[in-house]
Amino acid sequence: MLVARSIALFLLAALFEIGGAWLVWQGVREHRGWVWIGAGLVALGVYGFIACGQPDTHFGRILAAYGGVFVAGSLAWGMAFDGFRPDRWDVIGALICLAGVAVIMYAPRAH
């Protein structure tokens, strides 16, 4: 059950961090204004709290693993909201990153 909770938290964190960064991008780069930027900053703050919910207690491990989730999630976000179409190298890279997440977070460790 801890693995399922951890995966759910990674997905929720990705939604808020990538979504927050995208909102800031829209506010600045697409000239949508301060409301978009503010919403993005709030979402980025919420991301920080979500990351704290991970069952593992090691900040470095959580953030390192989240990096792989961020890579894959960013490509998916681009596909969903910006018309981005990843090529095979993007997909291969994302899969490598997700394999890294699995090793970092869920490999058996001596306690």
Radius of gyration, in Å, reads 15 Å
Query: Helices and strands, in N-to-C order?
Result: HHHH
Helical proportion?
over 70%
**Category by helix and strand content:** mainly alpha
Q: What's the number of helices?
A: 4
Distance between the termini: 18 Å
Structure description:
It is a single chain. The longest helix is centred in the N-terminal third of the chain and has 28 residues, at 2-29. Helices cover 80% and strands 0% of the residues. The protein has helices spanning 2-29, 34-51, 59-82, 88-106. The chain is flat. The chain has 4 helices and no strands. The mean pLDDT is 96.
Q: What would a concise description of this structure say?
A:
By secondary structure, the chain is an all-alpha fold. It has four helices and no strands.
